[in-house]
C-alpha cells in the first residue's frame, strides 16, 4: 500500500527531464508504458481505500438531513481531492527507482 501522506509527488503539473525518465529503459515509450501501468495500480488502490473509508460513514436510511450533514465523509473526500494524481505518484516512484520492472523479451 502506498503511503499517501509521505510522498514527494507534486500536486501541480511539473516539467520533467526526459533523460531522467527514460534512463532505466533507454526507451521513453517503454518508460511511459511502465509508469502508466503503475498509475493504474495506484488509482485502483486509492479508489478502493477511499470507498472503504466512505463506506464507514454510509447511512442506510432515507433521511435527507443525514446525507447532507455527514461532515466526516466530506473531510475524507477533501483529503483525497488534495492528493497528487495517480500518474504523478507513479512518475515520482519511477524517478525514485521504486518500481520493479523487467523486459520479458530480452530474457528469452
Automatic annotation (TrEMBL):
GO MF: DNA binding; DNA-directed RNA polymerase activity
InterPro entries named in the record: Pol_omega/Rpo6/RPB6 (IPR006110)
Family matches, as Pfam families: RNA_pol_Rpb6
Keywords from the UniProt entry: DNA-directed RNA polymerase, Transcription
A cellular component term, taken from the record's GO annotations: DNA-directed RNA polymerase complex
GO terms under biological process: DNA-templated transcription
Domain of life: Bacteria
Protein name (record): RNA polymerase Rpb6
